[in-house]
């Protein structure tokens, strides 16, 4: 009988990235709701362009490099480094809405990990409260999930959540959403590779349209997503 033990970390990765993970990821649009209301994003093509810009100018240059560094920091039990990269992620969130989202998702992830009955050290969980990325890096280390797999899983979960938000808000049919996922998935391998080449001093994001949309989200008359 073949040895299947090496597959177990992948199943834990699926658990972390599942839309059913109770950390509230599906409740945020990251500015997309306002962009749609104002006509910046109106159809399948413009939604894909929006997502492509966020992928190249935020995921590749900010979230994925920091996730990799948080993974190494937890692997080396370097909690000052965890704190440093959590702070760097936070200061690169350009609006109050995005900063609150980071805090809320981080606390929800740390709270969930604490409730799983796994032996996570209390000080590690405390550091993980600052961001969802830190919680994922901590869990991945604990469960033996490789950094590359974690990055790929996180990138896919972002794309799926953002695409489904657009499908709901524009609205689009589910087939259009699947077409976007299929097309965008072809960009992900190069995006993952590019994120590994980002140096410490280059980590940051440049998504001014997203920042403007996020800052205006709370003024919308009606909202489906948290602001």
Describe the structure.
With 227 residues, the protein is mainly α. 68% of the residues lie in helices and 0% in strands. The chain contains eleven helices and no strands. The protein has helices at 8-17, 32-37, 44-75, 79-91, 96-115, 122-128, 132-143, 147-169, 174-185, 188-196, 208-217. α1 packs parallel to α8 (147-169) and α3 (44-75) packs across α9 (174-185). The longest helix has 32 residues, at 44-75. It is globular and about 45 Å long. The termini are far apart.
Number of helices: 11
Radius of gyration: 17 Å
| Mean pLDDT over all positions | 90
Give the total of beta strands.
0
Low-confidence stretches: 1-7
Question: Structural class, from helix and strand content?
Answer: mainly alpha
Describe the sheet with the most strands: none
Order of helices and strands: HHHHHHHHHHH
Helix content: 55-70%
Q: State the distance separating the first and last CA atoms.
A: 52 Å
Oligomer: single chain
Question: What percentage of the residues does DSSP assign to strands (E)?
Answer: under 5%
What is the compact description of this entry?
By secondary structure, the chain is mainly alpha-helical. Helices cover 68% and strands 0% of the residues.
List keywords for this structure.
single chain, 227 residues, mainly alpha, 11 helices, 68% helix, globular, disordered N terminus
């Amino acid at each position: 009988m073949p040895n299947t033990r090496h597959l177990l970390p992948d199943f834990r990765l699926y658990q972390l990235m599942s839309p059913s993970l109770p950390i509230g990821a599906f409740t945020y649009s990251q500015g997309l709701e306002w962009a749609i209301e104002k006509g910046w994003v109106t159809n399948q093509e413009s939604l894909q362009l929006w997502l492509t810009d966020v992928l190249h100018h935020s995921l590749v240059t900010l979230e994925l490099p920091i996730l990799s560094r948080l993974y190494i920091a937890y692997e080396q039990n370097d909690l000052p480094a965890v704190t440093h990269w959590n702070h760097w992620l936070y200061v690169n969130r350009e609006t109050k809405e995005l900063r609150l989202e980071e805090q809320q998702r981080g606390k929800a992830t740390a709270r969930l990990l604490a409730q799983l009955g796994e032996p996570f050290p209390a000080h590690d969980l405390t550091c993980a409260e600052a961001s969802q990325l830190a919680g994922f890096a901590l869990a991945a280390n604990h469960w033996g999930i490789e950094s590359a797999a974690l990055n790929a899983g996180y990138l896919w979960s972002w794309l799926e959540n953002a695409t489904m938000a657009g499908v709901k808000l524009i609205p689009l049919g589910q087939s259009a959403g699947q077409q976007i996922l299929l097309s965008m998935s072809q960009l992900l391998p190069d995006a993952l590779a590019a994120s590994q080449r980002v140096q410490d001093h280059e980590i940051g994001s440049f998504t001014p349209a997203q920042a403007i949309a996020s800052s205006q989200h709370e003024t919308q008359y009606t909202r489906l997503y948290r602001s």
